[in-house]
Design a protein that fits this description.
This protein is an alpha/beta fold and about 475 residues long. Helix content is about 40%, strand content about 20%. It has helices at about 15-30, 45-60, 60-85, 85-115, 120-125, 130-145, 155, 170-180, 210-225, 255-265, 270-280, 335-345, 370-380, 415-425, 450-460, and strands at about 1-5, 35-40, 150, 190-195, 195-200, 205, 225-230, 255, 285-290, 300, 315-325, 350-355, 360-370, 390-405, 430-435, 440-445. The mean pLDDT is about 90. It binds aspartic acid (ASP) and magnesium ion. Its EC number is 2.7.2.4.
Length: about 475
């Protein structure tokens, strides 16, 4: 098979982990697969780069900048010592790393002097994590006898618009990847640094936090992969968070549509944007566990995957807050919702859930906790004169989402969900089910989270799911 394998920051956290990844890739290559690898930055490096960039622009502290570059240098040099035994290879990789770090240092010092950090320079700085990781992993592969070549996102052909920090890939990317990456597969394992692309002027862009998954999908579509494998530290996609419910099971197969619902609320699973290219090219995505490569993991496919259970997963989203606006003046007044949502959009507030009862006397919404105060201020300001009488905030809530494509058109699922809550004395504060019907979400007190998930997992017998 032709495969893309993507490794996240935790999988390449240190020299031992990188060596493990290299051995994994070698074992699949020896089974006759053609493999392209996409790697994230080593764990913590993207965050360290963003912090260094902010310290440089806000404090102009050149010493702090030199210290962070030196920490990143040490982290990579140590890893190279461990994961690249073959000395000439290691020397070569250390050289490439040194050159990159010199560029990084110069850029950061420049930002110190300018005291200004543009989105464009922030992208340039944050791209270094993946650009450092790729040659290291390629070196680790070479060192154990696997021919390999590293490339950054720009070299691989990822062409984006110029929205720095959240750039969108242009369609021509697929063709470019086909020309640049696909021909290498026969003779070696190309290792592409994730997260980074470049715009039409050749300026470096990044694809948003967690963007290496998107790189993997793009590369998969570009080289015409049979499957895209996202390696994680857990057993694929689970019926729920195993920290909450120890009986949580790994799902064997789910559909893209279900995966999107599961990812929608928590960054944990998969970003919908990241699998969009895979969906468009109908390439199955497999989520596998680096600690248990012999297990199949979860395969995400186009078709609905029938299962005895209509519900497949229960997720809980914390760090959210509930805002309710009310007032009899809202009843029958046209344009209230428009004003609510456009004022919040202007204030940069992310809204996760919405509900308005047919009395029209109130609108409730769930927002990220970090945006809650700003949201309340914005709404009070927007309606300072009339219509809305009260804006209330409850920060002690969480959202529970019940997901499964089998719920579509199946009566009684909502009934079971809410009577389970009722039987267990859990108060439901707000409810929302989109007309896609494959996700029922509701808000409860955050103290009830663990119990709500446990009883629902039990109610739908998810510990027995196939
Ligand atoms: N390194 C980037 C981040 O931390 C991209 C990724 O890991 O997917 O967000
Ligand atoms: Mg909260």
């Amino acid at each position: 098979m032709r495969l893309v394998m993507k490794f996240g920051g935790a999988s390449v956290a240190d020299g031992e982990r990188i060596r493990h990844v290299a051995t994994l890739v070698r074992s699949y290559r020896e089974q006759g697969h053609e493999i392209a690898v996409v790697t994230s930055a080593m764990k913590g490096v993207t965050d360290a780069l963003l912090m260094a960039a902010r310290a440089a622009s806000e404090k102009g502290d050149a010493d702090a900048v030199l210290k962070s570059v030196s920490d990143i240098r040490t982290q990579h040099e140590r890893a190279a010592e461990v994961c690249i035994e073959h000395e000439p290879t290691r020397e070569h990789v250390l050289d490439s790393i040194a050159t990159l770090l010199d560029d990084l240092e110069r850029a950061l010092v420049g930002i110190c002097y300018l005291g200004e950090l543009t989105p464009r320079s922030l992208d340039y700085i944050s791209s270094f994590g993946e650009r450092l990781a790729a040659p290291m992993l390629a070196g680790a592969l070479q060192s154990i006898g696997v021919p390999s070549r590293s490339m950054d996102g720009m070299e691989a052909g990822i062409l984006t618009d110029s929205t720095h920090g959240d750039a969108r890939p242009l369609d021509i990317t697929y063709e470019r990847i086909a020309q640049r990456v696909a021909p290498l597969l026969e003779e070696c394992v190309p290792v592409v640094g994730g997260f980074m692309g470049a715009d039409e002027r050749g300026v470096i862009t990044t694809l948003g936090r967690g963007g290496s998954d998107l790189t993997a999908s793009l590369v998969g579509a570009g080289i015409g992969a049979h499957e895209i494998w996202l390696w994680k530290e857990t057993d694929g996609i689970m019926t729920t968070d195993p920290h909450l419910v120890p009986e949580a099971r790994s799902l064997r197969q789910i559909s893209y549509a279900e995966a999107m619902e599961m990812s929608y609320f928590g960054a944990k699973v998969l970003h919908p944007r990241a699998i969009e290219p895979a969906i468009r090219h109908s390439i199955p995505v497999r989520v596998k566990n680096t600690f248990h490569p012999e297990r199949e993991g979860t395969l995400i496919v186009a078709d609905h995957v029938p299962s005895k259970s209509v519900v497949k997963a229960i997720t809980v989203i914390r760090n959210v807050a509930l805002i309710t606006i009310s007032g009899s003046g809202m009843i029958g007044t046209i344009g209230v919702a428009a004003r609510v949502f456009s004022s919040l959009a202007r204030a940069g507030v992310n809204i996760r859930m919405i509900s308005q009862g047919s009395s029209e006397a109130n609108i409730s919404m769930v927002v990220d906790e970090a945006h809650a105060q700003r949201a309340v201020r914005t709404l009070r300001e927007e309606f300072r004169h009339n219509i809305v009488k009260d804006v209330s905030l409850n920060e002690h809530v969480c959202v529970v989402a019940v997901v499964g494509a089998g719920m579509i058109g199946t009566p009684g699922v909502a009934g079971r969900v809410f009577s389970t809550m009722g039987r267990n004395g859990i108060n439901v504060i707000m409810i929302s089910q989109g007309s896609s019907q494959s996700n029922i979400s509701f808000v409860i007190d955050e103290r009830d989270a663990r119990r709500a998930v446990a009883v629902l997992h039990e109610e739908f017998a998810l510990h027995e799911i196939e």
